[in-house]
Design a protein that fits this description.
This protein is of the alpha/beta class. Helices cover 40% and strands 21% of the residues. The two termini are 18 Å apart.
Length: 221
């Protein structure tokens, strides 16, 4: 796993904190679509409306993806419906690459029923989404892309929590590499003015997110 595609993870974390993308609760927990219960929710969609900061982070992403794309021979960018679409489009424009998006559910028939856009010849794809916890949904998306006959080994996210256990097969077989602009630990460090209660909750969560989830009604590992 690659914890960060750049040496600017702290800067990305500062931007997310600055725009109010990090929501913290000491009461009813957030429950992610993956089933994890958490005291924090990072809404990267707010970045779409912050033009200067968005441009800075997308340029950073493109800059650090260039050597990865060259090494892998990646020839198209695929965004996740829905948040990943905008980020994928901005990154693809900077890299002068074709862009597609992957639907959550198939529309039509055939192996490409979830894909919108046209695959290039001998497709080698980079999948783009906003955030990942345990990367299960990212592996499922990449597997869907592979069913079209494409090669897909890499995922870019704006933030990887990087504190949840990964799928054993993903680690052992090297089926997927997750590249991230920042991680939860950098984002946590960038938060300022947290009341003591919230600070304590986030510290407990960061130390053991699985136990925290189970204790608050979410899934376990």
């Amino acid at each position: 796993m690659s914890p960060s595609v750049s040496g600017s993870a702290a800067r990305v974390a500062q931007v997310l904190a600055r725009i109010g993308a990090v929501r913290v609760t000491t009461g009813q927990p957030f429950v992610y679509t993956s089933g994890w219960a958490s005291p924090v929710y990072v809404d990267t969609r707010l970045l779409m409306s912050e033009v200067a900061l968005r441009e800075e982070l997308m340029e950073l992403a493109a800059e650090h993806l260039r050597p990865i794309i060259a090494a892998r021979g990646i020839n198209a960018i695929v965004g996740a419906e829905s948040t990943g679409i905008a980020f994928a489009a901005w990154i693809a424009a900077r890299l002068s690459l074709p862009m597609l998006y992957l639907r959550k559910k198939a529309l039509g028939w055939g192996s490409a029923a979830r894909l919108e856009g046209r695959l290039p010849d001998a497709p080698r794809l980079l999948f783009v989404d906003d955030v990942t916890t345990d990367a299960r949904s990212k592996l499922a998306a990449v597997q869907a892309l592979r069913e079209t006959g494409a090669s897909a080994e890499d995922v870019l996210v704006l933030m990887d929590y990087a504190i949840y256990p990964r799928i054993p097969a993903m680690q052992a077989q090297g089926a997927l590499t997750v590249h991230a602009l920042t991680t939860w630990r950098e984002v946590f460090a960038a938060l300022e003015g947290l009341p003591p209660e919230a600070q304590a909750v986030l510290q407990a969560y960061t130390a053991d997110p699985v136990a925290w989830s189970v204790e608050h009604g979410g899934v376990g590992a």
